[in-house]
């Protein structure tokens, strides 16, 4: 059940400690909420969270920690955080219709459910295949059943978890960066080690695509540029 403030959600910490707090994107990381003692090692709190995906983290005895009982991921700054998806009643019905995804979810009853025995494969979800087929027949606007199916599938697609963003340190590359010396434009900044051996591409400009990769041998760095003409298809 969703209240005017959000979905009542039970947050639990089961890894011990004396004083446990929680904070996250649901309050802008500005406030910490104290969890009450549930048993010897368990702490819990009930929060009214709006439907959607939330990132959060626990503060246990003045130390930031992630729970092993919840999904973890990195935030835009590369920090490890817990995350969960809070579902409204309408979202639960869609999940029942299309099947559960792998994201940890909290239903309107406040219980946390986690996908077990996750498996990754190259099998495309049937809903995406259905959506592609429906979008290919988008010109059939008079078909009410087809349009209703398209609307339902698009709503399902919007509620799926988004793919993780590019780690921030991979955005700081040598390609198109300012040179160190005005006299010798071949001298570049020393690259971060995590950017090595990646292939970077610039946007196509003047029918030319530029690619670059940086490698290291001991204390020397070598950046190789590749240029390839790209002509539009007739």
TrEMBL record:
Domain of life where this protein originates: Eukaryota
GO CC entries: cytoplasm; nucleotide-activated protein kinase complex; nucleus
Bias kind Low complexity: ranges: 101-110
GO biological process: signal transduction
Ranges of residues in domain Association with the SNF1 complex (ASC): 113-230
Acidic residues compositional bias, start-end: 91-100
Protein name per its UniProtKB record: Carbohydrate-binding module family 48 protein
Phylogenetic classification of the source organism: Eukaryota, Fungi, Fungi incertae sedis, Mucoromycota, Mucoromycotina
């Amino acid at each position: 059940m969703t209240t005017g403030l959000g979905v009542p959600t039970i947050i639990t910490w089961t890894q011990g400690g004396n004083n446990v707090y929680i904070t996250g994107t649901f309050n802008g990381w500005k406030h910490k909420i104290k969890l009450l003692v549930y048993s010897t090692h368990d702490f819990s709190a009930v929060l009214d969270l709006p439907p959607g995906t939330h990132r959060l983290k626990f503060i246990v005895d003045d130390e930031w920690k992630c729970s092993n009982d919840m999904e973890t991921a990195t935030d835009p700054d590369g920090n490890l955080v817990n995350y969960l998806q809070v579902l409204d009643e309408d979202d639960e019905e869609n999940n029942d219709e299309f099947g559960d995804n792998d994201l940890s979810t909290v239903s309107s009853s406040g219980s946390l459910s986690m996908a077990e025995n996750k498996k990754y494969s190259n099998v495309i979800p049937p809903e995406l295949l259905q959506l592609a087929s429906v979008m290919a027949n988008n010109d059939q606007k008079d078909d009410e059943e087809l349009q209703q199916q398209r609307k339902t599938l698009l709503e399902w697609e919007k509620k799926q978890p988004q793919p993780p963003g590019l780690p921030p340190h991979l955005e700081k590359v040598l390609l198109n960066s300012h040179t160190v010396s005005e006299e010798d434009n071949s001298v570049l900044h020393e690259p971060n080690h995590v950017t090595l051996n990646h292939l970077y591409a610039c946007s196509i400009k003047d029918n030319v695509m530029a690619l670059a990769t940086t490698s290291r041998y001991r204390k020397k760095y070598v950046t190789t540029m590749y240029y390839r003409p790209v002509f539009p298809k007739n």
